Amino acid sequence: MHAPDPAATRAALHRDRPDLLAPFDRELPGARAAVLARLWGAYAREPVPGLLRRARSGGRLTVHTGAGVLDGPADAAEPYAPAAGGLTVHLDGAAHTDPAALARALGHPGFAVEVDNSVANLALARAAPARAPALTATLPQLEQSVVDGHPLHPCCRTRLGMSTLDVLRYAPEHRPVVRLHVVRVPPARWYGDGPPLLPVHPWQYEHVLDAYPWLVPVGRVPARPLMSLRTMAPAGATHHVKTAVDVQMTSAVRTVSPAAVRNGPAVTALLAALAAPGLTVMAEDRAGAVLVDGEPSRSLAYLRRRLPRLAPGEAAVPLASLAAAVRAGHRLPDPLGFFTALAGVLLTPLLHLLRRGVALEAHGQNTLVVLRDGHPHRLLYRDFGGVRISPAALRRHGVEPPPLHGDLVTDDPHALRAKLLAAAVSGALAEQVAAFSRAYGITPALLWTRAARPELRDGPLPVKATTAMRLATDPLTDVWATVPNPMAG
């Protein structure tokens, strides 16, 4: 499997893209520091295997593990902290500036391969940066402006299975236009609610389709990859297409499960019926999969997501793109007022749904704020894979739950609350606080005061433990860590 580390990436650039070689070399130390900061942060807060205890003294953090004692700057381990050049973490006194070398020293060689690939792809992403677009830009332009990927995961830019040239061809941060393939499926081998036509990602077409000669190519459509590499915006279309790609990105291989194919229309209808104030759902109105051995194939499946209607003067901005724009120097005339409105637009509908037993996993990639004349006005949400729904709570509110498949169903109120708060508060909102604070000199405490709601004041905040999950026996089972609640009191 392709998993180019920095040396292999450099060799590929020397051979095929010498114009990127010098920028890659320039960006590599910063990429190592950025990924090391994410890894160090994970050891500071997550229940990673082998962790024994933690201690803070002054500005230093010490983490005792079964593999030795880690020591490093405490501020560098804070979520969303900028990674200082030359960041160093010590293991039993030995200095580490390379996160993959540190992972190996801690006894995680397989994880180190993923981290090495993440460093290489992050440096590659930073090697050819484009000017951050205005917040009125098109949605593909805004999505492709997010260069650094997941803000807390050490595997923020991992693409296991892709070569360096594949990354340059298909990754959104390189702003390509790709050709989305369409293949005809024999009707007897089709599972879905539309015609037996399967959109196929070009990487998947090149690497997987040979095994299915009865899939007949019928055309190609120009498209731009969105923040999620496997989700496409076809040129001139009124919808996005989520495709299957057998490549591991961050923590998972990004296929489309049979449950996702079945759940989309049902969850769309449920959220519409619950009518959360100020929330529009990007409806999943069509889905399909190829039947292989009588079962829908995860590798040969797709979802179609309908684009929302925007009124004159409106622009849809993913929250991750907003934070990236603020960090890149986009100036807002009233940043405190903007943030206050943003917090209200985000939290009001999400808490409305949580009270009724629906927890949206509203993180920076799948949650968009609609700006009207440059001011936060309403919320858009897409992608139901991380949603959690309580049938019991819905029935208490007079709503009959639809048939649901996979892991969407839970009646555990703690699981619902953790799912929502980890994504929307510890994740998306905390990233905005960090970006606005650094860009405008507003204290985080003041920003959190503007976001505080009674439902959010109790106890610490959950945050997804992405490194602990990656090192666990089952890396797809949610694991939570906690961080201090800046709204408590």
- Spans of at least 5 consecutive residues whose pLDDT stays below 50 are none
Question: Which strand order do you get reading across the main beta sheet?
Answer: 8-16-17-12-11-10-7-9
Number of helices: 14
Q: What is the CATH-assigned architecture of the largest domain?
A: Orthogonal Bundle
Q: Per DSSP, what share of the residues sits in E-state strands of 2 or more residues?
A: 15-25%
Total count of strands: 24
Rg from Cα: 22 Å
- On the 0-100 scale, what is the average pLDDT? 96
N- to C-terminal distance: 50 Å
In the CATH scheme, what's the topology name of the largest domain? Transferase(Phosphotransferase), domain 1
Largest sheet: 8 strands, antiparallel
Which class of secondary structure composition applies to the elements? alpha+beta
Overall domain count: 3
Tell me the overall shape.
globular
Question: What is the name of the CATH class of the largest domain?
Answer: Mainly Alpha
Helix content: 25-40%
Characterization of this structure:
- This protein has 489 residues and is an alpha+beta fold.
- The chain is 36% helix and 25% strand.
- It has helices spanning 6-16, 21-45, 99-105, 109-127, 139-143, 164-170, 202-207, 258-274, 319-327, 335-355, 391-396, 413-440, 444-451, 466-471; strands at residues 51-57, 60-65, 68-73, 89-91, 94-96, 159-160, 178-184, 190-192, 197-200, 216-225, 231-234, 239-243, 245-249, 252-254, 279-281, 284-292, 295-306, 314-318, 358-359, 367-372, 375-381, 388-389, 461-464, 480-483.
- The longest helix is centred in the C-terminal third of the chain and has 28 residues, at 413-440.
- The radius of gyration is 22 Å and the shape is globular.
